[in-house]
Amino acid sequence: MGLTLVSDFWGVFLSQDHLLITGGEDSVVRAWDTRTGKQAWSIANAHTNRIRGLAIVGSNLGSDEHSSGLYDLISSASSDGMVRVWDSRMVDTPTPAPIMEAETKARLTCLVSCGVSRSMSHCPCLSN
After folding, report:
1. CA-to-CA distance for 91 and 112, rounded, in angstroms?
2. Ramachandran region of residue 101, left (φ > 0), alpha (ψ -120 to 50) or beta?
3. Are 75 and 111 spatial neighbours (Cβ–Cβ below 8 Å)?
4. What do you get for the CA distance between the two ends of the chain, in Å?
5. DSSP string for residues in 64-115
6. How confident is the model at residue 46 (pLDDT cuts 50, 70, 90)?
7. What per-residue confidence (pLDDT) applies to 43?
8. Residue 82: is its pLDDT beyond 90?
9. How far are the Cα atoms of 43, 45, 117 from residue 98, in angstroms, in the given order?
10. Binning pLDDT at 50, 70 and 90, where does residue 91 land?
11. Which of 35, 41, 78, 83 could form a disulfide with 91 if both were Cys (CB 3.0 to 4.6 A apart)?
12. Is the pLDDT score of 125 beyond 80?
């Protein structure tokens, strides 16, 4: 499967890992290798409704043999009202499960993450 852009998707780019993380109408979180255009991994049924936002929320800088030592924690937000945090090192398991989740009881439309070394991403819901 190659990288094909669809009309309604969200993405975040990890330049150190050469990965583009996407999510959209099909409720699947996918990582694409930007060097080859091929899918690196995916989390099927990450949500029960479309994914409306993705963010990098953490890293494991003390890497092990399964980690690049870069950004391992990805969060996703959905119209189902759930925000979930995924450990990308666990996506090869038969049924990946989020390591953390929160039910907001709201119809989410975006997700923003920022940190000391990262600036806040533009998000349509923050625009005037």
Report:
1. 22
2. beta
3. yes
4. 38
5. -TT--SS--EEEEEETTSEEEEEEGGGTTSSS---SEEEE-SS---------
6. very high
7. 94
8. yes
9. 10, 11, 25
10. confident
11. 41
12. no
Place of tokens 């959209």: 24
Q: What are phi and psi of 18, to 5 degrees?
A: 55, 40
Contact 72, 56 (CB under 8 A): no
Q: Span 49-71, mean pLDDT?
A: 65
The answer to whether the CB of 89 falls within 8 A of the CB of 70 is no
Q: How far is CA 36 from the centre of its chain?
A: 19
Domains and CATH numbers, the chain: 9-112 (2.40.128.630)
C-alpha distance from residue 15 to each of 2, 8, 45 (Å):
19, 22, 26
